Amino acid sequence: MRSHEDQPYILVERDSGGSFGSFCLGALVGAGLALLFAPQSGEETQEEIRARAQRLRLAAEERMREAQLTLEDRLEIVREGVESRVELVRDAVESGRAAAEEARTDLEAKLERSKAAAKAGITAAREAAADGGSAQEEDVGE
Q: What gap in Å lies between CA 43 and CA 93, rounded to an integer?
């Protein structure tokens, strides 16, 4: 004979993600039942509903103001961070430009000195060749 534990069983689970909708539906049904069983008159109930709605509206407005202020503060912090980073990039670019200009000026000066040295070397070689040619003629003539 089989025991109860040996018999197969089926487990059904649902994950519809509608728990918030179920919560709202339950809240509405509960509110409706509370209105039906309330020991107050219709006018008193309506007045209480108006007062609660007013309080709820004021609380919602206050939370919206708080959220807006928080968001504005965070946006200002982000804006300041972006502006400081942009300024850092501008400074880096300017420093790079200045360094490139300085390097270019130095290279141009070195190039001019090299050209002048090359011209001086060529002139000296020509003079030496001219002096060397006359000195050889004097040596041959003696």
A: 74
Assigned token pair, 75 = 């946006």
The half-sphere exposure of 5 on its side-chain side, counting CA atoms within 13 A, is: 0
Three-state DSSP state, 74: helix
- On whether the CB atoms of residues 78 and 70 are closer than 8 A, the answer is no
Q: Whole-prediction pTM value? A: 0.41
Q: What are 60-92's pLDDT values in tens digits?
A: 999 999 999 999 999 999 999 999 999 999 999
C-alpha distance from residue 71 to each of 30, 61, 62, 65, 81 (Å): 35, 15, 14, 10, 15
Token pair recorded at residue 73: 């503060």
Range of lowest pLDDT (53-57, 86-90, 99-103): 53-57
Which of the given ranges, 30-44, 53-67, 127-141, has the highest pLDDT on average?
Answer: 53-67
In angstroms, the CA 69 to CA 60 distance is 14
User: CA 113 to CA 69: how far, in whole Å?
Assistant: 66
